[in-house]
Amino acid sequence: MSKKKYKIAVIQLNLNDVAENNLKKCLSWVRDAANQGAEVISLPELYSSHYFCQSEDVDNFALAEPLYSTSFIAFSALAKELGVVIIVPFFEKRMAGIYHNSAYIINTDGSEAGLYRKMHIPDDPHFYEKFYFTPGDLGFKAFPTEKGKIGTLICWDQWYPEAARLTALQGADVLFYPTAIGWHPLEKEQYGENQHGAWMNVMKGHAVANGVYVAAANRIGLEQYIEGTAGIQFWGSSFIAGPQGEILAQASHDKEEILIAEVDLDLQENVRQNWPFFRDRRIDAFGDITKRAID
């Protein structure tokens, strides 16, 4: 049952390694987070490999795994052993030709509390995700767990207030954003500060507009594995924000870290009572939001 207070954690890691090594590494870091008191723990996006979407290469589909195989087996056993909830973002092979960017939500008894498939799929230079991922078809969900009711969105989803709103309206205490975002090194000097600031601001805005906690788990490190390119410098800066957008914990740009913060449901309710954005929503006037454009 959900408690009035519980501790959440995001883990920030360099994941530029092979699947077997990344799995061992992440299992160890989750254990460390639990030992520090974390009760709901999130890994970064696509935890098991380097960020392969820098190119369009059919060989990278070999990195995908069927549902309830390697990742689920390993983290299910760990969740049950530690009595924690774990968010495990992975590359899902649904069937030949259909792949998703997904996340397991694993409950304290090792069972599946939910499955989320990334809804918004980007296609930017060196973020060629549309080549690999079919858009999610499970919708936006808040998942009841033994620790609390949590929502999971993934990376590009973080730019969409509609995704945050629909998840929060289902009663999520926290919006988790497993992420893989960074700078193109040749653009960092000119655009880097504004890009990073926008990333922080939009998610803090989701926290404020919905009166929820927000937790972003990013990776770090320069991943430069394609000859003739500068790669991607993942900017880290993972954070946890409270329901007024206040930063409760913030990581560096370049170190592997565990961030832990407390979710206080009494505080959340107080914030919503004083800033009653849900009460004042004009749902009678929002019908056009489902249109591509209003023209």
Automatic annotation (TrEMBL):
It comes from the Bacteria. Signal peptide: none annotated. The keyword Translocase does not apply. It holds the Pfam family CN_hydrolase. GO terms for biological process: putrescine biosynthetic process from arginine. Residues 6-265 form the CN hydrolase domain. The keyword tRNA-binding does not apply. Keywords: Acyltransferase, Hydrolase, Transferase. One of its GO terms (molecular function) is N-carbamoylputrescine amidase activity. This is Acyltransferase. It comes from Flavobacterium aquariorum.
